[in-house]
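Encode chain A's predicted structure.
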Amino acid sequence: MASEGQAQGLRWLVLVYKIPAEPTRLRAGVWRKIKGMGAIYLQNSVAALPASTSAERALRLLRKEIVEMGGTASLLDAGVLGGGAEMEQQFNAARNDEYEEIVDRCEDFLGQIEKEYRAEHFTYAELEENDEDLVKLRNWFAKVEARDVLGASGKAAAAAALERCAKVLDEYAGRVYAEEGEGR
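Encoded structure for chain A:
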């Protein structure tokens, strides 16, 4: 965690917006995009991201979309005079929640492989399905890691969980090859 002095030096991009009440799908769409960027909400309709070129590009695009849907939006480049450490904590907590979700999904993945062993399903179809699931988990991790610009603490646990999934899938693949008569 950064000290208050470090937190105060961090620049934030702040999107302040207002969207027409109807149709509600517009509001939900904006919320999904903001969450997908990894932004935090400082309050209703006020979202913030640590400043970067890619964050600015994404927020400028979203601002344009909000205006085109009949709303209003302002994008600010801001330094924090007070409360910066809390903003960083909130941002890291959001990333840690995402990392924890990945760990949970990895546990589900491992449970699925265990189920395949118990049912003695050692087929290429099952292997392919599980391989696709692992690819999805890795892609999800890469997205979270890309927006984890402040170094949330949950990254190591998620990376370790993914490594465990890969190891277990490799072992399962070996069993599939043996059952299908190909050996190693």
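The first helix runs from residue 4 to 9.
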